[in-house]
Automatic annotation (TrEMBL):
Record InterPro entries: ADH_Fe/GldA (IPR001670), ADH_Fe_C (IPR056798), BDH-like (IPR044731)
Origin species: Paenibacillus polysaccharolyticus
Keywords from the named record: Oxidoreductase
All copies of domain Fe-containing alcohol dehydrogenase-like C-terminal, residue ranges: 190-378
Name assigned to this protein: Uncharacterized protein
Length: 382
């Protein structure tokens, strides 16, 4: 293994009914007044909101609310949250929702203690060096944000989709009750599955070196997600499958898959971010479109790893067969695999390529991903 530092201070409270104790968990850390951030009104209809409010009240924790976080979170909403936090003397942020809500809460937590515009922290002008304490109750496993220090958000005015990764953005306590995810729609189960797999596969396919232990860990996450997704499509309330799915999602991006690894990148994410920034495509859906074309293009750069993937994940012998099996599985679970399926036309390819190229320039990857290569890749996604 190559030398590495592993740091993850997030406390995870995993299991049934744990959301009822969120007030007690927050009280342990001296929280007095919280900004409660959530997405749709669904948490009120299903009773989760009332449970949270009751738990906060039992600990005499005051709260201010910010709802309406969308699935591709936007900086305007985070700015609204920062203003609320500053105006109301908030000392912690509680996210109740999936990765989009969590990422927004992370941006708010950092922006609440920053004097400038919070977009500075997301656009690489300044790295967050402090933040309010962050807590969360997860209702959708996909991004791994419940156990990592990263956040991604879109500036809807500039169509830039950026973010940050900072030790101050780790959640203090993450509550994961798999029962809260039993009503996730089939579409979002598919998108979540693809997102989790891509966190693993980007690293797995691009790394110049992966120790066997870490490769086995990554492959186990991938196989677990495929197996449990197939189970959950037929049995949405299967608690065992839902539990393993949720924990695999957290493991996929809590940096355990980085241990001893060298030379990894997140290419497919950089490409997909343009689709979701420009056309508000669900992130997982965009990744499902990107992946078949990108893996076929990238396969020659790491042929042995792709063969290992085909053999260990699908029991097949060739790299090409592994990619085909992955693509077929995306279709099987209802994920889109073409631009047409996400209502993006061929006439928009030049615009998308320009957008991706600007991101690659910022990542200093423009030599690898020239405009011509990006156009070629996008045509393969039609």
């Amino acid at each position: 293994m190559r030398d590495f530092t592993f740091y993850n201070p997030t406390r995870v409270e995993f299991g049934q009914g744990k959301e009822n104790k969120i007030g007690a968990y927050m009280a342990e850390y001296g929280v007095k007044k919280v900004l409660l951030v959530y997405g749709s009104e669904r948490i009120k209809k299903d009773g989760l909101y009332d449970k949270v409010i009751q738990s906060l009240g039992e600990q005499r924790i005051e709260y201010v609310t910010l709802g309406g976080i969308k699935s591709n979170p936007v900086i305007s909403k985070a700015r609204e949250g920062v203003a609320l936090a500053k105006e109301n003397g908030i000392d912690a942020v509680l996210a109740v929702g999936g990765g989009s809500v969590l990422d927004t809460a992370k941006v708010i937590a950092a922006g609440a203690v920053y004097d400038g515009d919070v977009w500075d922290l997301c656009s690489y002008r300044k790295m967050p060096d402090s933040a309010l304490k962050l807590f969360d109750i997860l209702t959708l496993s996909a991004t791994g944000s419940e156990m990592n220090s990263s956040a991604v958000i879109t500036n809807e005015e500039t169509t830039e989709k950026f973010g940050f990764s900072s030790p101050v953005a780790f959640p203090t306590v993450s509550v994961i009750n798999p029962e809260l995810q039993a009503t996730v729609s089939p579409n979002y189960l598919a998108y979540s599955s693809v997102d989790i797999l891509s966190h693993c596969m980007d690293l797995y396919f691009t790394a110049s070196y992966i120790p066997e232990f870490t490769a086995n860990h990554i492959e186990n996450i991938i196989k677990t997600v495929i197996r449990t997704t197939d189970t959950l499509r037929a049995q949405p309330e299967n608690y065992e499958a839902r539990s393993e799915f949720a924990w695999a999602a957290a493991q996929a991006l809590n940096r355990s898959t980085f241990a001893g690894v060298e030379g990894n990148r997140y290419d497919s994410h950089l490409i997909e971010h343009s689709l979701s920034a420009l056309y508000d495509v669900p992130h997982g859906a965009g990744l499902a479109v990107v992946y078949p074309a990108w893996t076929r293009w990238h396969m020659s750069a790491n042929q042995a790893r792709y063969k290992q993937f085909a053999r260990n994940i699908f029991g097949l012998e060739t790299a090409e067969a592994g990619i085909e099996a992955l693509t077929n599985w995306f279709t099987h679970i209802g994920a889109p695999i073409t631009l047409e399926q996400i209502q993006v036309g061929s006439e928009q390819i030049e615009e998308i390529a320009d957008h991706i190229y600007s991101t690659m320039e910022m990542a200093r990857m423009q030599t690898m991903y020239s405009k011509d290569i990006l156009v070629e890749l996008l045509h393969q996604m039609k």
